[in-house]
Design a protein that fits this description.
homodimer; 153 residues; alpha+beta; 5-stranded antiparallel β-sheet
């Protein structure tokens, strides 16, 4: 963990991290839905158009999974992350349609040292994904545990 | 939608719905992680044993996706669901390890008619998944929109 770029001390309040981008193909949307969320509007273009979503649209859980991959590639795999106990809130703000390109950012809302574990800090992140029109499609807040960089007193 | 088994009126407070069960194979855990959450403890048995999770363990998002599939098969695909605006809270209570068999239930916490849309009601669900030892691994709360069964006045 010593050589990692991101440790607890690097997540200061207000830090904004770019999450890069990912195009959502129809093939990927249907493959995820067939395994995990086989509702018609996630499997079929005509059923999507007939639904309130307006077209073949990704499962909200697929959007969350893509968010996780962007987070991994942006900084998490090069960090001292010790995992997350859960998620505080997810908002699926708009449909994610086949062909959309999602991009995003994560903002550090708060960072505090653990009272019980002196080697660890807890970082509260608020993350957002947008489509190619700049419209928010996903908002997500959660807290992640990171090891501290510095020697423990 | 008329022939569906589950409409808004069927989700009365306190109703408990069995979600069936699903075994989490090492192959499925690694396939999901390789695409969406390539952290070492989700990809490799030795890395998992070396982590605080204690073995090759599913991404928390994989557990959520499996929960969604169980929900679909238990009642959602045979319901008047109009989708969900998000998730209020997710708690990953314990690691889900390769070979674990998850089972679960959903409890109706509240059901109320929409003020703005007379054909719709909002149902608040609290869902739990357990491993084969009966230990909770996932808790999740959210609200889902369902069409009403009865004719609209």
């Amino acid at each position: 963990m010593a050589g990692r770029t991101w440790a607890f001390e690097d997540f200061t309040e207000g830090t904004v991290i770019d999450l890069g981008s990912k195009e959502m193909s129809a093939q990927e949307i249907v493959a995820f839905a067939a395994e995990f969320d086989p509702q018609p509007m996630h499997l079929d273009e005509a059923a999507g158009r007939a639904s309130i979503l307006g077209g073949l649209s990704a499962s909200g859980w697929h959007t969350c999974a893509v968010f996780m991959r962007l987070l991994c590639d942006a900084f998490l795999l090069d960090s001292t992350s010790q995992g997350a106990p859960g998620v505080d809130e997810i908002k699926w703000k708009r449909p994610v349609l086949a062909g959309d390109t999602l991009s995003g950012r994560t903002t550090v809302l708060a960072a505090r040292e653990s009272r019980s574990r002196p080697t660890i800090g807890l970082v509260t992140l608020r993350s957002e994904l947008f489509n190619q029109q700049g419209e928010a499609v996903l908002e997500l807040s959660n807290s992640v545990m990171f090891l501290k960089r510095g020697p423990v007193a």
